[in-house]
Amino acid sequence: DLSIDVTKHHKPENYRDKFAYWTVQALKFPTHLFFQRRHMCHAMLLQTVAAVPGMVGGMLLHCKSLRKFEHSGGWIKALLEEAENERMHLMTFIELARPQWYERALVFAVQGVFFNAYFLAYLASPKLAHRIVGYLEEEAVNSYTEFLKDLENGSFENAPAPAIAIDYWRMPPDSTLRDVVVVIRADEAHHRDINHYASDIQCQGHELKDAPAPVGYH
């Protein structure tokens, strides 16, 4: 849905939100310093990390559902859909770029640390974990906006879209990299809204299963 507002930002309203926001800001600067305007490699790192929260959250909700013999309100499916969508972003960028060995090593290390940190964070406070992801996705939207600017001003080649992207997003055969970045940015904005919504539900004292999950986005 390309009508999603990509400019929307969640304003930190309490100490938990502020902690989540500044955690993401602290994590942002080293990656921007390392990748600078190398958008492809930056995107691959983003997607390797971004595919973790949905899988971790979906897995833990799945186990909770089994333990408590209760439905999840569709949230298991929604979070696993998010993880799969992020994985397809990564598969798309792999078709377009060939990372160097040190970039692969960085991705491997970051994913290993992030998976375990997010797993523990979700066990401790799902509402905080979802808020962190909401802010991470806001930064992803900003990164893809910068990518689009460089494509539009000619700083980056607007190559043909790879077949995997055309098939997955059902795009026209003559689609370009710019078209791919536009739909990926819309996906990230959707994930942003989903995770802020999930955190809001729990901040109001409810469980996720009490509110129907938005599923079937793709």
From TrEMBL:
UniProt keyword annotation of Transmembrane helix present: yes
Pfam families given in the database record: AOX
GO cellular component: membrane; mitochondrion; respiratory chain complex
Cofactors (names): Fe cation
One BP annotation, GO: alternative respiration
Name assigned to this protein: Ubiquinol oxidase
EC class of the enzyme, as a word: oxidoreductase
InterPro entries attached to this UniProt entry: AOX, AOX_sf
Catalysed reactions, as listed in the record: 2 a ubiquinol + O2 = 2 a ubiquinone + 2 H2O
Amino acids binding Fe cation 2: 86, 137, 188, 191
Record keyword Transport present: yes
Gene Ontology molecular functions: alternative oxidase activity; metal ion binding; superoxide-generating NADPH oxidase activity; ubiquinol:oxygen oxidoreductase activity
Lineage, opening ranks: Eukaryota, Viridiplantae, Streptophyta, Embryophyta, Tracheophyta
The enzyme's E.C. designation: 1.10.3.11
Location in the cell: Membrane
Cofactor note: Binds 2 iron ions per subunit.
Binding site for Fe cation 1: 86, 89, 188
Chief subcellular location: membrane
Keywords: Electron transport, Iron, Membrane, Metal-binding, Oxidoreductase, Respiratory chain, Transmembrane, Transmembrane helix, Transport
Family: Belongs to the alternative oxidase family.
